């Protein structure tokens, strides 16, 4: 088979923003989707007009490279019978402490090389998000709730981590609707809504310093700094809900490992993920998302035809 015809998978994680509740008692004009969209567009335009190369700070990341946003192009997007926004984001990686760029010349017999400087940028203008607004009004309470569904397109040329960082920054710092974080009790409540977990993945890891191992003779006269990393991954299918909750509540891993990641996926491809880190005390983070996929060929990726398949 031609390499151009080999199928690749585009991941499409989907998140929900935090709710904004509005009291519409006595209001002449009720909130609607068009208002929410226009407000988001105004906030993004304001960001573009003031932006001087925003660098996104992620305190949890240990990567030396940093992500930055250059511009955000806003495109009105008909979504079935509704309105939504397509964001076409120009972003870059900088703080390049190592590496170089190499281009082969036409005869392939020689090449040009350029060693990266720290402030150089590796850029791409094909980071895409779809923002789908929801506005719900309750005539009994006269309350209105508005929030966003956020769809990320992680094509084969992008890293899922980068897309999530960019999306979370845009929703939190620019549109002022952070992607929703769920709490422990809500995590369990969501799991209990299902009879069976379609698939589960539990990853246990630890990272420690140790000098317990016996040194070979040629290193006996040296002071050695030794770091040990250990990891175990367990994958299951058809997991009972009570067993999934028991896995989450079990803390026996802290005797051997200091980090655990649990990922539960239901039949609708909704992903519930919990990360537990144990040092002096337990620290937990939770994520509730959906994970859709679409198959494309390398030829479609190269021609950007995959964008038409998605949209």
Keywords:
single chain, 311 residues, alpha+beta, twelve-stranded antiparallel β-sheet, two-stranded antiparallel sheet, 6 helices
The helix tally amounts to 6
Share of β-strand residues: over 45%
Stretches where pLDDT is under 50 for at least 5 consecutive residues are: 305-311
Shape: globular
Structure write-up:
The protein has helices at 33-50, 160-174, 184-192, 241-249, 298-302, 306-310, and strands at 7-16, 20-23, 54-56, 66-79, 82-94, 100-104, 111-115, 122-138, 143-153, 196-209, 227-240, 259-265, 270-278, 282-297. The protein is an alpha+beta fold. The strands form two sheets. Strands 1, 2, 3, 4, 5, 8, 9, 10, 11, 12, 13 and 14 form a twelve-stranded antiparallel β-sheet that branches. Strands 6-7 form a two-stranded antiparallel sheet. The longest helix has 18 residues, at 33-50. The two termini are 28 Å apart. 16% of the residues are buried. Mean pLDDT is 80; it is low at 305-311.
Write the layout of secondary structure elements.
Elements: E1 7-16, E2 20-23, H1 33-50, E3 54-56, E4 66-79, E5 82-94, E6 100-104, E7 111-115, E8 122-138, E9 143-153, H2 160-174, H3 184-192, E10 196-209, E11 227-240, H4 241-249, E12 259-265, E13 270-278, E14 282-297, H5 298-302, H6 306-310
Antiparallel strand pairs: 1-9, 1-14, 2-9, 3-4, 4-5, 5-8, 6-7, 8-9, 10-11, 10-12, 12-13, 13-14
What can be said about this structure in brief?
The chain is α+β, with helices and mostly antiparallel strands and 311 residues long. It has helices at 33-50, 160-174, 184-192, 241-249, 298-302, 306-310; strands spanning 7-16, 20-23, 54-56, 66-79, 82-94, 100-104, 111-115, 122-138, 143-153, 196-209, 227-240, 259-265, 270-278, 282-297.
């Amino acid at each position: 088979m031609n390499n151009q015809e080999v199928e690749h998978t585009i991941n499409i994680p989907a998140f929900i923003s935090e709710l904004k509740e509005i009291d519409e008692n006595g209001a002449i004009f009720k909130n609607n989707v068009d208002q929410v969209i226009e407000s988001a567009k105004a906030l993004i335009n304001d960001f573009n007009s003031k932006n001087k190369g925003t660098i996104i700070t992620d305190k949890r990341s240990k990567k030396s490279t940093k992500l930055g946003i250059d511009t955000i192009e806003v495109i009105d997007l008909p979504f079935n019978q509704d309105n939504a926004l397509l964001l076409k984001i120009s972003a870059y990686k900088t703080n390049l402490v190592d590496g170089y760029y190499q281009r082969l010349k036409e005869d392939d017999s020689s090449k040009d090389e350029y060693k990266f400087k720290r402030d150089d940028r590796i850029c791409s203008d094909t980071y895409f998000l779809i923002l789908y607004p929801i506005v719900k009004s309750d005539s009994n309470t006269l309350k209105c709730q508005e929030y966003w569904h956020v769809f990320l397109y992680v094509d084969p040329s992008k890293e899922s981590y980068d897309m999530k960082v960019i999306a979370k920054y845009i929703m939190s710092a620019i549109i002022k609707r952070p992607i929703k974080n769920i709490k422990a009790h809500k995590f369990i409540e969501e799991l209990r809504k299902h009879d069976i977990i379609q698939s589960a993945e539990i990853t246990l890891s630890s990272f420690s310093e140790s000098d317990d191992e016996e040194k070979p003779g040629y290193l006996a006269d040296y002071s050695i700094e030794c770091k040990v990393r250990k990891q175990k991954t367990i994958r299951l299918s058809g997991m009972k809900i009570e067993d999934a909750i028991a896995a989450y509540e079990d803390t026996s891993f802290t005797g051997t490992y200091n980090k655990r990641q649990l990922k539960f996926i239901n039949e609708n491809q909704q992903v519930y993920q919990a990360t537990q880190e144990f040092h002096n005390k337990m620290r937990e983070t939770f994520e509730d998302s959906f994970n859709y996929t679409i198959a494309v060929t390398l030829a479609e990726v190269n021609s950007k035809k995959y964008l038409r398949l998605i949209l």
